[in-house]
Amino acid sequence: EGTQAGLLPRTTRRLTAAEKDRAVYHGAIHVFLERESGIKRWTDKLHWSASRIAGHFLMYREIE
């Protein structure tokens, strides 16, 4: 809903290394549609938990 309302940007492709350095930080939200982006599992420079289903979403938690 947030992306449809224009409140959140949608990630439409994998980020480059330079983009990850700027866009991946504490509190950042990245929304992607698998069919649009081709991304099946999010990867970046951080460590993430296994996915958990939350309604129509897969949720991940950062592992420190």
TrEMBL record:
Q: Which InterPro entries match?
A: Gti1/Pac2
| Gene Ontology molecular function terms on file | DNA binding
Protein name per UniProt: Gluconate transport inducer 1/Pac2
Which species expresses this protein natively? Catenaria anguillulae PL171
